[in-house]
């Protein structure tokens, strides 16, 4: 059957924007988080940390098109799960995009809200949501950097995507019970950030801590590259939140503007608190403040006023700061669990905060454009406090499911593959895990011994031999005490 290259239902603007948004989200992961993870850790963990992100991105795509997309956005199987199936055939990918379980009905069985059917091919929707799925796994990885067995991670990544991520995505976005109940999650405060924060914290508990020397000192190996990675993450959020409406409509630019306002406010708030309490601004702190602002606005981005984005930025720059800098030091549980990049604070706490604030600050006019349940509005605009309770209940579902599934997967993997690298390998880092190192420099704390026999040129062997020996020395790298 011939295929129409430009069918009547295709909106070129929507299709172009959705693919651009997908690319922006992809750049957040590749190279954004790859660069950020590779630079924010100690030098000896740069390769391992970057590779965990790289592997997750690749493995997620294959799992997504084989089974994951339809489990998250296909026909309903259970109230919280779609029917598994491939998204690979030409017939499936070129037809108009649709999310079949999103049709909303009145109690008498008549249609209240039609099925979500964006004006572009299914392939565009599959690609867009793959980018969301991949970055969720990469964010989760931040909790276990610096000690998780890479082989265990290679098994964990696809299993967690299938059995945890797809449940949250279907429940809140794909037409599951939380979607039809009227829970608001504009672009992933719960589906992506709360789930990655809780799953990451749970994984950190089961994998175990880094070695003592790494926990005590884990300074970035390249602060400038760390800022580059963070910058890619920030600007990529234009696609992250701007693509959520599935169209280049009126809420897309509102979502993008609110995203940047909240992130900037949160960064400034976090930095101000660092200066007030510690006497100097911290680059890592600024990045954490940026991150919490981006995460907090995500469930509300296209549904709130710009002034509300400022309020959310002030809260996201202070409440996660308090939980990380004050509460963390007083909690025995938080002290026990070695969450390497504090994903629990920057994503779980910030995502939960954003979800609750969305139930308060969602504007009725914008909510009616985007949400399946007509009349949905925030508590501040005359809505029932029930909306806030719905947001809390949905968060509890995501938290409990992620704790249960992450635990089950890791225990099962642990029967066959050690979750944590041995201590002797943890002392070495990348070279033990991959046989590779990030920089052509002498090892951490290791001195170059100029008196070693093989490094001393012998003139008695002739000029050619001496030159060859000097070349061999130069090829080994620069002598540096790190």
Automatic annotation (TrEMBL):
<keyword id="KW-1133">Transmembrane helix</keyword>
<feature type="transmembrane region" description="Helical">
    <location>
        <begin position="246"/>
        <end position="270"/>
    </location>
</feature>
<dbReference type="InterPro" id="IPR024041">
    <property type="entry name" value="NH4_transpt_AmtB-like_dom"/>
</dbReference>
<feature type="domain" description="Ammonium transporter AmtB-like">
    <location>
        <begin position="16"/>
        <end position="439"/>
    </location>
</feature>
<dbReference type="InterPro" id="IPR018047">
    <property type="entry name" value="Ammonium_transpt_CS"/>
</dbReference>
<feature type="transmembrane region" description="Helical">
    <location>
        <begin position="282"/>
        <end position="301"/>
    </location>
</feature>
<feature type="transmembrane region" description="Helical">
    <location>
        <begin position="187"/>
        <end position="208"/>
    </location>
</feature>
<dbReference type="Pfam" id="PF00909">
    <property type="entry name" value="Ammonium_transp"/>
</dbReference>
<keyword id="KW-0472">Membrane</keyword>
<feature type="transmembrane region" description="Helical">
    <location>
        <begin position="392"/>
        <end position="417"/>
    </location>
</feature>
<keyword id="KW-0924">Ammonia transport</keyword>
<feature type="transmembrane region" description="Helical">
    <location>
        <begin position="340"/>
        <end position="363"/>
    </location>
</feature>
<dbReference type="InterPro" id="IPR001905">
    <property type="entry name" value="Ammonium_transpt"/>
</dbReference>
<feature type="transmembrane region" description="Helical">
    <location>
        <begin position="20"/>
        <end position="40"/>
    </location>
</feature>
<comment type="function">
    <text>Involved in ammonium transport.</text>
</comment>
<protein>
    <recommendedName>
        <fullName>Ammonium transporter</fullName>
    </recommendedName>
</protein>
<comment type="similarity">
    <text>Belongs to the ammonia transporter channel (TC 1.A.11.2) family.</text>
</comment>
<feature type="transmembrane region" description="Helical">
    <location>
        <begin position="125"/>
        <end position="146"/>
    </location>
</feature>
<feature type="transmembrane region" description="Helical">
    <location>
        <begin position="52"/>
        <end position="73"/>
    </location>
</feature>
<dbReference type="GO" id="GO:0005886">
    <property type="term" value="C:plasma membrane"/>
</dbReference>
<dbReference type="GO" id="GO:0008519">
    <property type="term" value="F:ammonium channel activity"/>
</dbReference>
<feature type="transmembrane region" description="Helical">
    <location>
        <begin position="220"/>
        <end position="240"/>
    </location>
</feature>
<dbReference type="InterPro" id="IPR029020">
    <property type="entry name" value="Ammonium/urea_transptr"/>
</dbReference>
<feature type="transmembrane region" description="Helical">
    <location>
        <begin position="158"/>
        <end position="181"/>
    </location>
</feature>
<dbReference type="InterPro" id="IPR002229">
    <property type="entry name" value="RhesusRHD"/>
</dbReference>
<keyword id="KW-0813">Transport</keyword>
<feature type="transmembrane region" description="Helical">
    <location>
        <begin position="307"/>
        <end position="328"/>
    </location>
</feature>
<keyword id="KW-0812">Transmembrane</keyword>
